[in-house]
Design a protein that fits this description.
heterodimer; A: alpha+beta; Glutaredoxin; 2 domains; five-stranded mixed β-sheet; 5 strands; elongated; B: de novo design (two linked rop proteins); 5 helices; 2 strands; 76% helix
């Protein structure tokens, strides 16, 4: 084969590389696009971007949980937070106030925090509350609550869908999602939501979040008034401990 | 000797694809019971990624899809001829493109990095480079 023939053959080969390579690249791009579209479409129906999962994990790391109670079960003081998962003020507390209290009073075992549902915003608050209780039955109640707040949507906007709740439960690390899904629709769990809200009304609470404390220096569960800063909550805990 | 040079390229691709299968298999096994791969740096990045909805595609664990991709790339590296060269390039481009997307999800959507996913993305990038060179240099030449 002469040099000219070799050159022509190489040029022909290069044309073939460009043609076949372009076809292969086009096919690959289409496949990747389809994979991405499938991935994105399964994210629809709720905020699957789950913000703050790492922060929640760090905040709660190493602290025992039982039901919706965070902290040492034997802690002398119980701080009860009545909250509505749809409540934007509660979200603010979850992000700005409660973490300080967890660090200063709960982590050391002086107090435990119990979350109770006070579903006052809309009907959507009820399945959210039931989902939190069901997550609590698998030891992930506080992960669920904290993660819900960090991914909260606009109240009464319809964002509290089954997909959204499932996504939060997965992100919260609920071990058995099928069991959680059954539990959250269970009459017993829904009755617990109603009972917690009824208790808040009985205590005369009018908004969320509201706090109550119980400890050696209190007569049962007492409502110390509106608490809005870590210092005020810590003072209420210290006062209840005697 | 072009065949010998392509042989070396294929041998490296076989090695990298085998590593990829090992990494993806480890991730798939670690996540099979609802767990997560062990992240050596700590920080819970692997758990966060494993628990994310993006760890599955149409109900299938992404690591399992990765195993299938690496197996296809291994087969392409083991076979000779233009069909294998082009298929290897196409599979590697799919894997590379999807790895870029998954890395973007980790950085900007999930807000967590899993070292094993990063390792897989690096291996997929290497395979893309190897298969691109193989296609450009050897398509149209004797096996």
């Amino acid at each position: 084969m002469s040099a000219e023939q070799r050159s022509e053959a190489e040029q022909e080969r290069r044309r073939r590389v460009v043609q076949l390579g372009s076809a292969a690249a086009f096919l690959a791009v289409v496949v990747v696009a389809v994979l991405i579209v499938i991935g994105q479409s399964q994210s629809d129906g709720g905020d699957t971007n789950l913000e703050g999962a790492d922060v929640v994990r760090q905040d709660l790391d190493g602290i025992p949980q039982q039901g919706l109670t965070l902290g040492d079960p034997g802690a002398p003081v119980t701080l009860v937070e009545f909250g509505d998962l749809q409540c934007p003020v509660c979200k603010g507390f979850a992000e700005e106030v409660i973490p300080e209290v967890i660090d200063s009073r709960v982590r050391g075992g002086e107090a435990k925090i119990e979350f109770r549902n006070f579903t006052i915003i809309s009907e959507e608050s009820i399945p959210a509350a039931a989902a939190a209780i069901a997550a609590g039955e698998q030891g992930r109640g506080w992960d669920f609550i904290e993660l819900f707040y960090r991914n909260q949507g606009i109240e009464r906007s319809g964002y509290v869908t089954d997909d959204f709740l499932t996504e939060i439960a997965r992100g919260a690390g609920v071990p058995d999602i099928e069991r959680w899904d059954t539990d959250r629709q269970n009459r017993r769990v829904l009755a617990a939501v109603s009972a917690q809200t009824a208790e808040a009304e009985r205590l005369g609470l009018e908004g969320t979040p509201s706090f109550a404390v119980e400890g050696p220096a209190t007569k049962g569960l007492e409502v110390p008034g509106f608490l809005e800063s870590p210092a005020e909550i810590e003072a209420a805990i210290d006062s209840a401990s005697g | 000797m072009p065949a010998a040079a392509e042989g070396r390229l294929r041998a490296v691709a076989v090695f990298v694809a085998t590593l990829g299968i090992a990494v993806a298999t480890y991730i798939a096994i670690a996540e099979s019971d609802g767990g997560a791969p062990a992240c050596f740096a700590g920080g819970g990045g692997c758990e966060t990624v494993a628990e994310s909805s993006h760890s599955e595609l149409a109900g299938v664990n992404v690591a399992v899809i990765g195993i299938a991709g690496y197996l296809a790339l291994l087969a392409a590296a083991l076979l000779r001829g233009d069909g294998a060269r082009l298929a290897g390039f196409a599979f590697a481009l799919i894997g590379f493109g999807y790895s870029v997307y998954l890395t973007w999800l980790e950085l900007f959507v999930i807000d967590a990095i899993c070292q094993w996913c990063v390792a897989s993305a690096i291996l997929m990038t290497l395979l893309f480079a190897l298969n691109a060179v193989r296609m450009v240099r050897y398509v149209g030449k004797p096996p």
